[in-house]
Amino acid sequence: MIVTATEFKTNLGKYLELATMQDIFITKNGKNIARLTSPSINKLSILDDLVGIIPQQENMDTDGIREERLTRQ
User: Fold this and answer.
1) What is the pLDDT, as a whole number, of residue 69?
2) What's the pLDDT tens digit per position in 1-58?
3) Which residues pair with 34 in a beta bridge?
4) Can you give the pTM of this predicted structure?
5) What is the dihedral of CA 43, 59, 68, 45, to 10 degrees?
6) Residue 2 contacts by C-beta under 8 Å, 6 or more apart in sequence?
7) What is the dihedral of CA 35, 37, 42, 44, to 10 degrees?
8) For the residues of the chain, what is the DSSP string, one character each?
9) Cβ-count burial of 8 within 10 angstroms (0-12 exposed, 13-18 middle, 19+ buried)?
10) CA dihedral of residues 50, 51, 52, 57 (deg, nearest 10)
11) Amino acid 30: pLDDT
């Protein structure tokens, strides 16, 4: 979620609660200045879980990846 610094200051409590579920990007003058994230979610371990899901094939393109994902559902 992206919010302006003014909006963030006005509704700090709301965004602190939302940060437990998703990252909050704070902008000022249209530029990202900060990211609020939950310390309880170890994002590196989540990324490690994703490694190896897609088979290492040289001829795999985005359509092939999409088809592979859909067949697993």
Assistant:
1) 74
2) 999 999 999 999 999 999 988 899 999 999 999 999 887 767 677 766 676 666 666 6
3) 26
4) 0.55
5) -10
6) 24, 25, 27, 32
7) -20
8) -EEEHHHHHHTHHHHHHHTTTS-EEEEETTEEEEEE--TTS-HHHHHHHHTTSS---TT--HHHHHHHHHHT-
9) buried
10) 110
11) 93
- Residue written as tokens 């490694």? 51
Enumerate residues 6+ apart whose C-beta is below 8 A from 33: 5, 26, 27
48 token code pair: 């490690």
Find tokens 């509704």 and name the residue: 11
